[in-house]
Each structure stands twice: as C-alpha cells, then as structure tokens.
Amino acid sequence: MKIILASKSAVRKKILDQNNIKNEVIGSNVNEDEVKVSLLAEGANPMLISKNLAELKANKVSSKAPDRIVLGADSVIDYNGELISKPKNRDEALNILKKLNGNNHNLISSVCISKNASMIWNYTDTSSLTMKKLEESKLKSYLDKIKDEILFAYGVYQIEADGRSLFSKIEGDENSIMGLPVKKIKEYLDNLK
Questions:
Q1: By residue range, what is the domain housing residue 85?
Q2: 67: phi > 0 → left, psi -120 to 50 → alpha, else beta; which?
C-alpha cells in the first residue's frame, strides 16, 4: 500500500521511508496562519489547533485523490496554554527561544488519515521538553547555525540535529517530536491490510 503524505516536510518523509511505509508527497498548501487565527479567535487550545490542521491538510489532499489513503500532520508548541508557531523571521525565532529558555513546554504532534475527503483515523501525541537556561549569546549562536529554509519550515529547534543540545530533559517519542508518531501510524496501516 502506498500512502500520500500531505506535507512537504523532508523530516516526515524520511521517517516514513525509514519505517518502510511507501509514500508519495503532495503538499496540502493549507494557509496555516489563517486557520490558526480563526481557531484562536474561537478559543481553541493548541491541541485542538494541531488536530484541526492535520485533518484539514489530509482532507484537502484526499479530496483530489479518490480512494487513496492520505496522511496529514501538524505539530505545535504549547507553552503554558499559549500557541507558539514557526517563526517568520530571525528576530521572532530568537524571541521564541528566549521565551522557552530555562522553561518546560509541550510539543503536540497530530496526525490524521483521510480517505475520500473524510477522516478515518487520527492520533495526537504530546511530548514534554525542558530547555536549559542559556545565555542569549548561546541562543544567537545556535540560531546562526540554522539555515533560513530549515528555521522557517520546521521551527526553532530540531532535536534530530543540534537542537538536542538546547534541552536538559526530553520526555516523549522522538519521532513524534520530529513531527510524526510513526509507531501508531504503522499500527493503524497494518490493520488496514
């Protein structure tokens, strides 16, 4: 079975490939910022926003791919109930790191599988991360090492790379933290066969 990944995330694709889940990529092109603003205005919490975005992405691609299994995914940072999104520029990235500096936050990763434009399964995983208390110069130095396309696509840290050094404690599934709780996805797909 070959699924469609409704995400242009190279990390998510790599996780599927490493787990022998045949896939092809079709980006959803969902305007995430617009959706987040709308959901926040309705009082949605970060977990609900993550779930909604994963479903929206899967359903949008699924509507153009009849009878195919489509996987949508979304990850957000929940800092004491506040939604923290990917930075739009380097100043914003530094401000996010300063906010998280020395503190604990949750990373919420949601996935949705859709068929014929309807959700048939979803799963949300929450990981807890505690960032070391670092000097601002160290935060800047860390950001200087990250290329713009990575920073703006994946957020302020990547635990699969140098981002691991920012944390004193990481509790949760590493694949979920990277954006895809692949163990649960495999369990579901295996039951479909």
A1: 3-192
A2: left
**What's 65-79 look like in SS3?**
CCCCCEEEEEEEEEE
Eight-class DSSP state of 170: E
Provide the token pair at 171.
């509790």
Q: How do residues 129-181 score in pLDDT, each as one tens digit?
A: 999 999 999 999 999 988 887 777 767 888 877 888 999 999 999 999 999 99
Residue 25 has pLDDT above 80, yes or no: yes
Catalytic residue among 74, 125, 162, 190: 74
Share of the chain above pLDDT 90, in %: 82
Q: CA 178, CA 34: separation in Å to the nearest integer?
A: 23
Amino acid identity, position 30: V
Angle at 17 (CA atoms; ends 24, 120), nearest 5 degrees: 60
- Nearest 5°: CA angle at 11, between 65 and 158? 145
Report yes or no: 101 and 93 within 8 Å, Cβ to Cβ: no
What's 162's domain CATH number? 3.90.950.10
Q: How far apart are CA 37 and CA 110, in angstroms?
A: 18
Report how many domains make up the chain: 1
**pTM as predicted:** 0.93
Active-site residue 74, yes or no? Answer: yes
